[in-house]
Amino acid sequence: MFDWSTAVITAIAVAAAATVYLRDGREHFIAILSGDFALFGDMLPKVLAGCLIGAFVTLILPRELVARWVGHESGFAGLLIAALFGFILPGGPITIYPVAGAFLLMGADAGAVVAFITCWTLCGYTRALVWELPFFGAHFVLWRIAEALPLPILAGLLARVAVKTGLARIS
Amino acid sequence: MTLAVDILLWAVVGTLAFLAALRGRILLHTGARDGAIDFLRLLPRIAIGVIGSGFVAEALPRDAIGPWLGPGSGLLGVVIATLAGALTPGGPVIGFSIGAAMLKSGAGAPQVIAYSTAWALYAVHRLVMWEAPLMPARLVWLRAAVSLPLPFIAAASAMLLAQP
Fold first, then answer.
1. B150–A4: do the CB atoms touch at under 8 Å?
2. Structural domain count, chain A
3. Same domain, yes or no: A77 and A155
4. What is the DSSP code string of chain A?
């Protein structure tokens, strides 16, 4: 499958590499390249571990069970539990959105589903450890996550307010 | 630090593999195979993203980034970063490598936080390609709508705390 976004990034990377080579010379080019390779080598074991965690959790933790937990809780506890699962569950969009859909079927409200997706995308531990940490370093990532922690609950509450006031309707 | 993270991640992998093995050999094999296939699929993208971000950060002129996204760019910088995050296509490799390139080429931390928060919450490409087909449409738009202020809140708390 041809992947447009990867193709565009490749083109940008090649153009940037050529710019650095022509402007700053060969030595500087090689210094940056070796730094990038060190980062790449640092990421590989983490990415492999992240992929395996995603595959095993998908197999071991049945979607229905998680959905039943989240669906049965309401009120503020419902938001907290949904956010907690967002923090724990690994995986990409293909695995996470069907789980969120199952929450709805099991009786979770829109606020809980919104809190779940927001926490998964902002605070999920596999995402942070596998992807963000090698690029940004521990200091930056810890602060970013600390500042993001209240956001899933806030988003869930906003979604509830929107539904209650009739601004949004979830059929 | 990075070694500690590796150990933590692989301890989780070991525990999960053990739990899978308790339920049968087939589950263990399926998990290992699925994970390995995912990894091989990601590999070229990671290589391009990582190597690309290093060169992009170096190639970008610092004087050009500063006024738009630098630590002194304030709210305007946060707005630009949020828009850029919403318009960035692709998976984690691309989003994080652009964020890292921004930070290296002189963007401020609150602006980079706004960028990655907006990209994580409502990258238009992900909403349309992934979330809309798999979720009830009204819920997708509701989630995107309530997420609109979140990058600004994250950036504001980064500014107030003066961290990272």
1. no
2. 2
3. yes
4. ---HHHHHHHHHHHHHHHHHHHHH-HHHHHHHHHHHHHHHHHHHHHHHHHHHHHHHHHHHS-HHHHHHHHHH--HHHHHHHHHHHHHH----HHHHHHHHHHHHHTT--HHHHHHHHHHHHHH-HHHIIIIIHHHH-HHHHHHHHHHHTHHHHHHHHHHHHHHHTTSS---
